[in-house]
Amino acid sequence: MPHAYLKPLLDNNGSKIILLVLDGLGGIATSPDGKTALETAASPNLDRLALEGTLGQTIPIRYGITPGSGPAHLALFGYEPLEYVIGRGALSAAGINLPVRAGDIAARGNLCTLDEDGNVVDRRAGRISHEDAAPVIARLNQVQIPGAEVEVRQVKEYRFVIVIRAEGLAPHLNDTDPQEVGVPPVKIRAQQKEAEKAAALVTEWIDKATKMLADEPVANGFLLRGFATDPGLPSYQDAYALKAACIAEYPMYKGVSKLVGMDVLDLVGPGTEGEFETARKHWEEYDFFFIHIKKTDSYGEDGDLKGKSRIIEEVDQALPALLDLNPDVLLVTGDHSTPALLKSHSWHPVPFLLWAPKTHRTDLETSFTEGNCARGGLGTFPAIEAMSLALAHAGRLDKFGA
Q1: What is the pLDDT of residue 401?
Q2: Which of 68, 99, 176, 222 is the most exposed place for a label (fewest CB within 10 A)?
Q3: pTM as predicted
C-alpha cells in the first residue's frame, strides 16, 4: 500500500485536489546563454500562481535515473516506482480497455519499416496515420499460434498492443526495439527461467507476423517493448480515500490511471480547453482530478523548443477555467524532464508548483521556471511525496500521534 502510514490519518472532508501534469515539463538551456521552454514561454497565470504559492522540484525515481512515463506517473501518484514495477504493455492495454489478467503478458508495439535485409529503416513506419495503420494492425490480429490466445489491438496511429494468454507465462522478456536504425529487431530472450515458455510463444508469433506483413509497402515490420502482466496495484480509494478521475487524451496515461483505480472520463472536446472543460463538467463528482497534457513531451522529444514553449502558453491561457472551479489544492508539474536539447527523457529534476490559497506558505520566487523552482520553498524532494503534500494542504490529513 502506498504511504500506508497515511491511512489512519485520512480525513474525507470534501476538499478538491487537481494534479495538472505537463508531460516532460522540465528542460535545460539550449546554449550557455539560452533559455528552457518554460523560461521562454509567456505564462502570466502560472507566474501569478508561483508568486502566490510555493515552488520546488521533484526527483521522479532517484538522482541520476532517467524515468519512463509509467514509473514517473506512479511516483507522482505516490506509488514507489521501484516497488510497483509496471511494463508499458500493461499500461497501454489498460488505456484501451484490453483486459490483461494476472498470468497474461502484454507488450506495446510500433509498426516499423524494414529493408530487404531485415534491418530497421524507420522505427515508427514514417509515423503512418491512424487510418493507414488500422488495416495493417488488423492483419496482425489474424496471426495465431497453437497453445495460446493472441489479441492485437490498435492504440493510436502506428502503435498497438498485443496480449498473449496461456498457462505458465511470465513477462520477463527483453524488448525487440533496438532503439536505432540500420540493425535488425532484437530477438526475444527469456530474462528469467520462468519466462522461457513465453519467449518461445512470442518468438513463434513474431516469425508468423513478420511474414504476414512482408508485402506491406511501408509498415512491413514491428517492434515490441514493455512486456508486462497485471500488477495488482492498490486503488486510490483504498490508499487515500479519494474518488479520483483521470482526464487525458493518450491511452497510456489512461492506462496507468485505471491501474490505480481512477475513473477515466470521456473528453468533451480536444486539447487543453477540452480537458479543462471535462473537469468542470464532472467537478461535483470527484475529489481528485489528474489532468494530463501530452504535447510538452512530444515537442521536447522532437527537439522543438518553440513548440514545447507554445504548449505551455496554451495551458497558461486556459488555466483560468481551472481556477474558476476554486480547487483547494492545485499542483502543476511534470512527470519527468524532456529537454528539447536532448530530444529525450532525462534525469533532471522536474519543476513543481503548489498552490493552495488557504494553507500554502509563500516563498521568495515570483515566476514558474526551472531556476526559481530550484530555489523554491519546497526544495528538492521525491515525487512520491507529492500526494502527501496535496492531502495535507487539502486538510485531508489528521495529526500523527498524541
Answers
A1: 87
A2: 99
A3: 0.85
238 and 1 in contact (C-beta within 8 Å)?
Answer: yes
DSSP 292-330: EE-HHHHHHHTT-HHHHHHHHHHHHHHHHHHHTT--SEE
Quickly count: other Cβ atoms within 10 Å of residue 60's Cβ: 30
From residue 336, how far is each of 30, 61, 349, 350, 373 by CA, in Å?
Answer: 18, 9, 7, 6, 14
Farthest CA pair distance, the chain: 73
Please give the grid coordinates belonging to residue 227.
Answer: 512486456
**Cα torsion through 12, 17, 21, 27, rounded to 10:** -110
Q: Are 156 and 130 in contact (CB under 8 A)?
A: yes
C-alpha cell of 288? 481528485
Q: Which residues of the chain have pLDDT under 70?
A: 1
Looking at residue 143, what is its pLDDT? 94
List, for residues 270-298, the tens digit of each pLDDT value: 999 999 999 999 999 999 999 999 999 99
